[in-house]
Amino acid sequence: xxxxxxxxxxxxxxxxxxxxxxxxxxxxxxxxxxxxxxxxxxxxxxxxxxxxxxxxxxxxxxxxxxxxxxxxxxxxxxxxxxxxxxxxxxxxxxxxxxxxxxxxxxxxxxxxxxxxxxxxxxxxxxxxxxxxxxxxxxxxxxxxxxxxxxxxxxxxxxxxxxxxxxxxxxxxxxxxxxxxxxxxxxxxxxxxxxxxxxxx
Length: 200
Prior knowledge:
This protein has 200 residues and is mainly alpha-helical. It has eight helices and no strands.
């Protein structure tokens, strides 16, 4: 029988380590995937994923199911990603986006589920996946977060609004602008074609 995330967290609150381990199994790969796309460093994404779950575990005794567990989890991860990017800027550290991380393909089986915005050919080659990662990294932070959460993590607009602390309308606007920017960047890179029929 399926047990909801919120029920598992209530069990965690009572000291059930097995319930916490099940939550980790449910969300570990999607969370690493999300963080990797946000900061473009796979090994650091693993570290931040562990930090996210550690914060969840430490907060278990105070957990109240006032919002969905998934929204709460991604809010923690998003804040950690933002801190990482700020710290990276302060350290003046540059990560080469064109380096292929070990195990990368595991997390790049799909590029964009909404193929209205990207032609099917983008799903085929590693070089094109890298170009998409580079384009994604060029988006403003809130656009990148919103697009990644909706497209790759299947979060609802309402959940993303809660994570970003804005309205659903603002989330839709962020995603609209992000898709327009992505399309322009990919056309410029020569891996997408301009089409008057495409709906943005």
